[in-house]
Amino acid sequence: MKFFKHIILSVFVLGAFAVPANAQTDVKALTGALAETIREYANYADTLAYRIAFANRKNPTVLLGIAEAYNMNQDFDKTKKYAMQALEVQPDFAPSYVLLGRHCQYKFEHYGDSAYRDTAIIYYKKAMEVNPLYPDSYDYYAIMKGTEDPEGVLRQFLQLRDQRPDLNIGGTIAALQVNVARKAPDDTLGIKMGLLKRGITTYEEQGNENLTLDELNQYCSALDLAVDWSKEADVKNFYREKIVNVASFAHEKEVTDPRFLSVLLAANYGLERYQDAIKNANELFQSADTAKLHYRYMPYDYRYKALSMFSLESIDSLSTGNVGLDAAVDEIEKGTETGLALSEDMSITMQQRELAVAQYNAMSGDVTKIVNALIAKGKYDQALHIREYQKSKKSEPTFNDWLYLINVLQAKYENAADATEKSLAQRELIDMYTKVEQEFSTDPQVCRIYYNHAATVVGESHPKDGIGLALYTKLFNLEASNQSRDSYDDQFLAIAAQYLSMHAFYNNDYETAMKYALVLMDYDMTYSVGDQIFNACSKAKPKTAARMRAEHRPV
Q1: Residue 498: CB partners within 8 Å, gap ≥ 6?
Q2: Same domain assignment for residues 377 and 285
Q3: Could you tell me if residue 18 is inside a domain?
Q4: Taking the C-alpha atoms of 89, 92, 97 and 99 in order, what is their torsion angle to the nearest 10 degrees?
Q5: Which of 2, 32, 81, 555 measures 20 to 30 Å from 290, CA to CA?
């Protein structure tokens, strides 16, 4: 289907022969479609690009759109080729100089060669020279120079604004002010916040309607920084409200740009407007599905989608219940799998693969984070459901899948409000351990891990109760038969021996108690406990004690 779409595109462009010079929307659509074609059908795309360029050889905007499509795919030779063709048609075409500068800036950021930085600055200066009213040249120049001397560049632009009030550089100045705040020492948060507020005020003075999309995005980033740097909840929410205002305006201005949905989602989530957050997340996914080039936003899309869907309040308010939990798990796993697949896809660029890895890393731990959040709020049934659902999707669940369930039940047991709840939670744990034992009974290594884990938890009760008797007996026998036992295993052997010895002592089974007490006496860490139990038992059965001591051999 995609291939046919690109054929239709080429027929449309060639049939129309030329894109109207003022048709910016058409050029933007052409750039996006061509960029996707370059990524998927490189040889065909080169021919198509050549034909579009020839049909529009007198239109610098279209030529630059072709250059931008190649720039999106990091093909710098063709980026430069078509950007230079645009300049041949119109020597004062500032956007071409800016694109050439961006191309050099990218190389500097990835290869570290200062020559690329210097060349980028030259291109940005040239753009400012040929068209002083083109704002992007100031923005990129400020970013490039600001890495060296942010305060010096800020002074330069403030002076330029005084000299040329007709220049629309307020957004650039605001970005520089925010950058100065970022670079202030971390131990001077009050000063940093004051500098940041200066930049936010400058953005406000410009008015949303006078800022470009990139400037609106930078404005949102500055407000998000204010949220992070603020300590009081009401101040954080004050800046979140501003983000909602700015991002909503920008989203209405350009609905295909997913950046503003992303910050809207985060702000609404922070304001506990979970229904709005889920709406933003769903729109964001639709955008990501249709705009394949927005790899850079995907990690954040999926992460925020997961967080909003998993929010306890949103689940309760929307009555999605376990169905909502299942859907959220599916979204996370889908995103993780997509990220992993893209990271190994040699047909996409290295940068796109790196971003796919970032997506995979961002999502791989999200289920655990949300399960932990549910546990922290005492929502054990929902946390347990998530782990059960994950396990049910696998044809052969691993021990770790079962261990996830045990961890939830263990937290429920440890945080029980009273003795009755604790007893019920302990019974759930024991039932779960029994299921695990049945599942992995033929795997001694897994059983060893399982018994160590299970006996430690269940045996927390007093040995007199005997609740952990079966588990500790199995643990002891398993560790005693382990010929490659190390010091770590010895600890669990001693723990089991101590429980079994004390249980036998409380039940007046002195011979069994002495049997395990002698094992305890084999280890320095438990010698005194074993010695006390053995001596107490020997008073009741002195001859048996003497015989057992003489016959004892270390396990």
Answers
A1: 516, 520, 526, 529, 530
A2: yes
A3: no
A4: -60
A5: 81
Last residue of a domain, one of 368, 393, 418: 393
In a 13 Å sphere around the CA of 529, the CA atoms on its Cβ side amount to 19
Asked if residue 55 lies in contact with residue 94, where contact means CB atoms within 8 angstroms, the answer is: no
Q: Which helix (H) or strand (E) holds 17?
A: none
Q: What does the pLDDT look like over 366-401, one tens digit per residue?
A: 778 778 878 887 889 888 988 998 899 888 888 889
Residues 421 and 437: their CA atoms lie apart, in Å, by: 24
DSSP letters of 337-381? HHHHHHHT-TTS-HHHHHHHHHHHHHHHTHHHHHHHHHHHTT-HH
- Tell me, yes or no, if the pTM score tops 0.70: no
Alpha-carbon distance of 292 to 307, in angstroms, equals 23
Going by C-beta distance under 8 Å and a sequence separation of 6 or more, which residues neighbour residue 127?
94, 95, 97, 98, 101, 134, 136, 137
CA dist 518 and 304 (Å) reads: 57
For residue 259, give its domain range: 255-393
Distant-in-sequence, close-in-space partners of 62: CB < 8 Å, separation ≥ 6? 18, 19, 27, 30, 52, 53, 56
177 is written with which tokens?
């002010």
Q: Is residue 342 part of a domain?
A: yes
Residues 266 and 350 in one domain: yes
